[in-house]
Amino acid sequence: MPATNPATATAPANAVTRPLTPADATTTDAVPADAVPTGLVPADLTPAPLDREAGYALLAELAGPVAAGTLSGLDALAPGFADWIVTSLFGGTYQRPGLALRDRQIANLAALTALGGVEPQLADHVRNSLRIGMSREEITEVIVHLAPYVGVPKALAGLRVATATFAASAAPPAAASVTAAAVTAAPVTDTPAEDAA
Fold this sequence. Notes:
This protein is an all-alpha fold. The chain is built from 11 helices and no strands.
């Protein structure tokens, strides 16, 4: 098979031949039916719900005013990425039927604890869980329940994040952010016997 020279190669007839612009990312219009190549999308395929406004409304309910600062900072670094996250996650995945918001938060707590290394996101979801009415005891028990499945060290790390987040949530608003130092200083200890489990 001969090598293709990218400089002289021609694009397929249905390829996008212009660079995407910021206007492309902000349009809320549906893709025209004639823009999708025939046969690409099965006729019985269920469309994915993507509701940008519902995504921002849900994020406001879950995270409150702290979300605006986080989104602005992320957008300054990676323009459009914050909006994509809110639209696809909170305006898409969260809008699916089948799980209550509380159940989704339990899944988030479990997934982030199991991943490890995502302390800021886990702290956000501990805060979100409190905001939607989960108790500290329920959040703690979700993380404790994970120990035999994800390992005691990851469960302890999750409890450290939860402890720091609970303390920050009880503090006056100016002191309510959870920092890496607060997570490290949280009073959950690892003992050699626990690490070996």
